[in-house]
Write a structure and sequence with these properties.
Layout: H1 34-47, H2 51-65, H3 82-87, H4 89-107, H5 112-128, H6 136-147, H7 153-192
Helix pairs in contact: 1-7, 2-4, 2-6, 5-7, 6-7
């Protein structure tokens, strides 16, 4: 989520491909109950002073359990040593960006429209970053694993629901941007077509 490190590569898969998350009907609809929102706010307060460390742990675990994610993080593609990753300033900075997004999500968790807009915008950016939806769930899963020893089962379940909400809403944003880009390409193609002139014989 929030992957400027992946923006260097050209698009490598066609719009509408399964890697992009399938069709519109594949996006799961998730709702956040009042109880889930309260649990998330309370548990976030317990960890917000430790976000830098949690962000690093999350990304090191992500690359260990899902090395294919390095395909969209070119800076780390050739780095296999976990200690090198842990010491990386770039990895720490990216971890902080993820944690900052989570913090913003928690701050808006009682404001549905603002929360949706925040997440949709991130999904749109991920289309530009060439980061397909299949990766979104991995980040949330590794965040939860990093926190597993601190959290109760109720807290863990609440965060699983939140990350499912985030990933499904990001997919909607991704697909919106995908359609926008496709429409722009189609309009450009129409404008570039040579006009046919008909000459009248006198």
């Amino acid at each position: 989520m929030g992957c400027p490190l992946s923006a260097e590569a050209p698009r490598s898969w066609p719009p509408g491909d399964d890697e992009n998350g399938g069709g519109e009907d594949d996006v799961v609809q998730v709702s956040l109950s009042a109880q889930i929102r309260e649990v998330i706010k309370q548990s976030w307060r317990e960890i917000q002073d430790d976000v830098s460390r949690v962000g690093v742990i999350m990304f090191v675990r992500l690359f260990e359990t899902h090395p294919e994610c390095k395909d969209v993080f070119f800076m780390f593609k050739e780095v296999d040593d976990p200690e090198t990753l842990r010491a990386s300033r770039e990895l720490r900075a990216h971890g902080l960006r993820i944690m900052s997004f989570i913090e913003k999500s928690v701050a808006r968790i009682d404001q549905d429209e603002r929360l949706d807009q925040l997440i949709l915008d991130l999904g749109r950016k991920h289309y530009v970053y060439d980061a397909p939806p299949k990766y979104y769930e991995f980040v949330g899963a590794e965040f939860i694993q990093a926190m597993k020893e601190r959290w109760t089962s109720e807290q863990e379940d609440a965060w699983k629901t939140l990350f499912l909400y985030i990933s499904s809403t990001m997919k909607r944003g991704f697909k919106q941007e995908q359609r926008n880009q496709r429409n722009q390409r189609n309009q450009s193609d129409v404008l570039r077509r040579p006009s046919v002139s008909v000459s009248k014989q006198v």
